Amino acid sequence: MNPSISLPDNGRFFEIRFESIGGLGAHAAGQVLATAAVLKMGLNGAHFSSYGSEKKGSLVRSFVRLGPAQRPIRTSAPVETPDAIVVFHAALLRNGATFAGLYRDGTFIYNAPARSVPKELAQLPSSARAIGVDALGIALKEQSRPNAVLLGTLCGAFPFLDAEKVLEALAEEFAGRHPEALAANERAFRRGAEEFETLKGVGRAEGDLPVARAEPAWGFETQPVGGIIPEPGNTVWNDLSASRAGFVPVFNRERCIHCGLCDLVCPDFCLVWEDGEQGSRFERELVGVDYRYCKGCLRCVESCPASAMTKKTETPGLADRLRVPLFPELVA
Known about the structure:
Number of domains: 2
Shape: globular
Helix content: 10-25%
Distance between the termini: 58 Å
Strand content: 15-25%
CATH class of the largest domain: Alpha Beta
Strand order of the largest sheet: 2-3-1-4-5-6-7
Oligomer: single chain
Number of strands: 11
């Protein structure tokens, strides 16, 4: 092993968990990192991902396990107790499982606008390190993707990860399929390695965080009497906010001509209509968007002839502030 590569001396493998949604490149990021560690840094490593239907918006977890070259890795189990967690999408902070298993001295890297400290970070151990980086903002400016930025931040946070070797592996990953992206990815990676903010003491938990394992709610001894559905599914409570990749449609009512073209192309029926005001020439008028059901496809923006729908970067709290509920009787 390269003598300049020194893993943290904690008596265990160094384990990383990427928390993401489909389409943001977490699987590719894990693959690049493990490839660089094994083939270029002389470490022993393993990588694999866990995902469902492989579509944009579905939950994706990517796992990387690293160790010294002489120590074999004999497990392919998911990373339950990570040294580092990297979160690709801010909506995932609302899920307690995103934080699960982090060591008390672990590192939590999250994608958020500069100087943003989400209240959910209080779930972290008080001794953990939290690192924020505007991965989406940097990626947009550099015409790259958030995974390149977050890989750079990870290398900046852990110097034993040779940034130049990881960058080399990143270039090789895209050289064949997208050679035009190489320069943009490098700029995004280097900015991610430098433009992050380190926070300490934002957590309120003590000690290591508990592991979250997927276990059935009921077994053969505890299941309810047949014929009873104690937790029925209901699309009224469906929340598509985690499907959005950083953008939302913003409605300008003054420009709207209430033609209904946006409603024709919306796949999720997230637009809210009301009867026209007295004296108005419109029977029905569009009044807003219920972002709980909006996945950010932006078809309404593309179809609007009056530019009443515009594409905006989703900043923290924007959707909650502009949301017009489809079902106001269900809003607490």
